[in-house]
Design goal:
alpha/beta; Spore Coat Polysaccharide Biosynthesis Protein SpsA, Chain A; 2 domains; nine-stranded mixed β-sheet; three-stranded mixed β-sheet; 10 helices
Length: 348
């Protein structure tokens, strides 16, 4: 097992690990079995304190290249640091709790060439029940007019059974970070993830910047991977709620065009309504997490506004954003009762 980058490869699959021994034991062997020898397999370790490194050394020294880091830098900065050391034409950022299926890699790579996508993901289904779309990606990510992300196949917590509609290949707003393909040139042009986000929403932020730089993002619905989800932070974690709400606000403020005090006030009002809904159901820790997220935005405001000004100068996109739905997903789902993305009025 090597501990530094050895040679350039056309494709490098990079698994970021943090105390994820059980996931490595479950999901790494199928990855190795389903990937040809010419594909470089890396495990970038985010300062794990469990037995991950020793298990890798004992069991997969002949196939897996290891990139150990001294501390936990989070998902975003962890990948930033790892990819600085790995030379490949295309990176595949793969969560440690993703089960690959036959043909997954070649299909997505081929679809990227056919459609001219700089970044892409496959259809992501649930590992426990592959008949259902998975929360973190499904058939591709979209964004509504208030900056709330949703997926073709998942609106908030409502996931759909997979059918032929989900298996289409199409342009989307964002590709899922659970299985994220990106060309090295595009990664470098956009300067990778925003490391200050730590985790959650970093792929949405990157895809937004890529679109503004003239790149296209896609979902290869004819390729499938299975995602367990919640491998590092469970959905009920207040810290996960904090990161999701804070980072979503930061991403929108950084990237959205227009008079920012107006759209931020509307969005933060909707967040406040969601927080009181949590409180009404007895989730006071989640309620406090949303308040902390808004406080985190205020603390980051000088930095984020500086980033906003810099990104506006770099924007070259002339047409509309792909995968941007101008309606309100909150109103459509919670008030009108829409459960499926395909039923949203005006969805392109």
């Amino acid at each position: 097992m090597t501990s530094v980058a050895s040679q350039r490869s056309e494709v490098a699959v990079v698994v970021l690990n943090w105390n994820g021994l059980s996931h490595l034991q479950t999901y790494l062997p199928p990855l190795l079995a389903g990937t040809t020898e010419d594909i470089a397999i890396w495990v970038a370790d985010n300062g794990s304190t469990d037995e991950s490194l020793s298990w890798l050394a004992s069991n997969h020294a002949d196939r897996v290249q290891l990139l150990p880091m001294a501390a936990n830098h989070g998902f975003a900065e962890g990948y930033n640091r790892a990819l600085q050391e790995i030379d490949a034409d295309t990176y595949v950022l793969l969560n440690s709790d993703v089960r690959v299926t036959p043909g997954w890699l070649d299909i997505v790579l081929q679809e990227m060439k056919v459609h001219g996508w700089s970044a892409a993901s496959p259809l992501i289904v649930q590992d426990d029940d592959p008949r259902l779309c998975e929360h973190a990606g499904a058939a591709g990510g979209w964004m509504d007019g208030d900056g709330y992300p949703f997926c073709l196949g998942r609106i908030f917590g409502a996931t759909e059974p997979v059918d032929g509609w989900h298996r289409q290949s199409r342009d989307v707003f964002w590709a899922s970070g659970a299985c994220f393909f990106i060309q090295k040139e595009a990664w470098q042009e956009a300067n990778g993830f925003d490391g200050d986000l730590f985790a959650h929403m970093e792929e949405i932020d990157l895809c937004w910047r890529l679109q503004d730089l003239g790149h296209r993002i896609g979902c290869a619905g004819n390729a499938t991977v299975q995602h367990l989800g919640g491998g590092t932070l469970q959905a009920s974690s207040p810290f996960k709620t904090y990161l999701n709400f804070r980072n979503n606000l930061i991403v929108m403020l950084k990237n959205r065009q227009g008079w920012w005090p107006g759209f931020m006030f509307r969005r933060m009002t909707l967040d406040g309504m969601a927080a009181f809904r949590m409180l009404g159901s007895g989730d006071w820790r989640q309620f406090l997490a949303v308040g902390r997220a808004h406080g985190g935005l205020y603390l980051a405001l000088p930095r984020v506004l500086k980033q906003r000004r810099a990104l506006q100068k770099l924007r070259v996109r002339q047409g509309p954003l792909k995968g941007w739905w101008s309606g309100s997903i909150v109103w459509s789902h919670f008030i009108r009762g829409v459960q499926r993305a395909r039923d949203l009025k005006g969805l392109g």
